[in-house]
Amino acid sequence: MEQFLLSGLAIGAIYALVAVGFVVIHNVTGIINFAQGEFAMCGAMTAAALAAAAVPLPLALLAGVALSALVGLVTWYAALRGAANSSLVVQIIITIGASIALRGIALLVFGSSPKSVPAFSQGSALTLGAATLAPQQLWVLGIVIVLMALLWLLFERTRLGGALLAAAMDRQAARLMGIDPLAMGAFSFVLAAALAGIAGVTVAPITLATYNMGLALGLKGFVAAILGGISSVPGAVIGGLLLGIVESVGSGLLPSGSKDAIAFVVLIAVLFARPEGLFGHRAQRV
Amino acid sequence: MATVRNACSAIAVALLIAVPFLHNGYLTGLLVVVAIDALAATGLGLLVGAAGEVSLAQAAFMGIGAYATALLAGHGWNAWLAIIGAGAVVVALAAVVGYPTLRLRGHYLTLATLGLGIIVFVALNEASPLTGGPSGYGDYPSLRIGALRLSGDVPFYVLAWLCVALAVIGGAALRASWRGRALRAISASEVAAASVGVSVRARKLEAFVLSAVAASLAGSIYAFYVGFISPTSFGFEQSVFLLVMVVLGGAETATGPVFGSLLFVIANEVLQALGSHLFPSTAQSAVAALQIVAFGIVLIVVMRLLPRGVAGAWLEKVAR
Fold first, then answer.
1. Three-state DSSP state, B283
2. Residue A96: which of B52, B187, B243 has the nearest Cβ?
3. Fold of A2-273
4. Which letter does DSSP use for residue A282 in this model?
């Protein structure tokens, strides 16, 4: 049981990173970005390909994250900036288009076989009571904690983060204060894509990287974000950790093929019982 | 506008009636597949165009329709009853997914149907004692009318296009009815629609269930036409391709998705030829990848430049 909890916490930390990206984009632009999981995939595949080409691991990881951020920026400018005021349906379809275009490009460039990324460090597993944590799982947890601290600093202590929050709270008022909502949109995509890229390269040593890893990762990040109330960054983090734990414990009890179904069941249950999420404000209900 | 549209539709119908008499097996077979896709796309078009919601489970509903039909027919049901039984299964599933998600605006249905699509794909692969798993299922009888056994391209050509015609007429009637007006009011503003007494959730749920039923029927016809089904025909990408058809043709009219399906298959044939020309050595997977990239970009470009669809925009231009 402790083992399931700890493994769940580690994988949940990955979902949390993807979920935070959803929340940041959603808050700043109102867009639900169905390409979020593909941002993570781009980073993981790039890092895997570079690592396989004998590029030093830290450099490969950095390049993967940088490419994710770049893909996020390009997605914003090429696909979504001009549709910032379009209807929800148009925006949803555009991000779906971006999502499968990225999948296709990855399939074209990297092929369909799974690729491995070496673990960030060797060494023995950490034993906590009856459970053990592999070094890579420790890396995941450490990276997520550091990133959350950095995000807190960004939002609470820098002008850029403040501008982002202002644009998220009220686009019109932010514009009156000299903040360009479209520039903030670009920044939110870069930030979200970089977070997803970090999630991708960090999880790849555990799960392998494939061109279609983005679909499930995106869905789970999404479920985590809704669990946390879709507009709250701390909520998304807790939602991700909870989902990871539920999934880990559930897949220990249920047959292995049902692992991906757990996130979906959680989603339907949350929408049934508490659509505003565990911590969110009441969602618009009509 | 209306006369041009009617003229185009009349020409299209005349051409469709002429096709079986050409005795061109390739063309007839291709157009059976177009009709099956058009049927599912017509359903999705109703959801996107009238209700303003996007589903990513349309291929999954096709898959459930196909598998449920095949399994029921394979276990001794009358084939036509099996089609109805499969429809009932899909209605129940769509209601369970739609009921909690459609009380919320916008992206929740897309998200839930994305999840549903993934699960159905996994389930079809994993439940191998029942479905045959990744290697597929083909152990079911063929469709009969009395003693007449339906097989080959022409009978299914007639059956599938008749179903498309019925779906388009039904869809047009629904859009023109008070339900259609209610749905348009909802997609403009749910709050405003609710404030004038529209039952937002009931109307959206109806549109979603109907769209799923169209997909289920398309899946049933597919199962009997091909005689063998496997999960790969009903994955996430197929759902996106159905969305591409809707977007290409334009979702504002009932006929739009049908034209979209025709445009899609033409674009697809061009892409296949182009792909095997560009990547002669790596062949199939590169062509598939090229197809995914191209249709992803098509979705973005069409939504940005011609949100009423290529067919819709062209009709407007001709009519002017």
1. coil
2. B243
3. ABC transporter involved in vitamin B12 uptake, BtuC (1.10.3470)
4. P
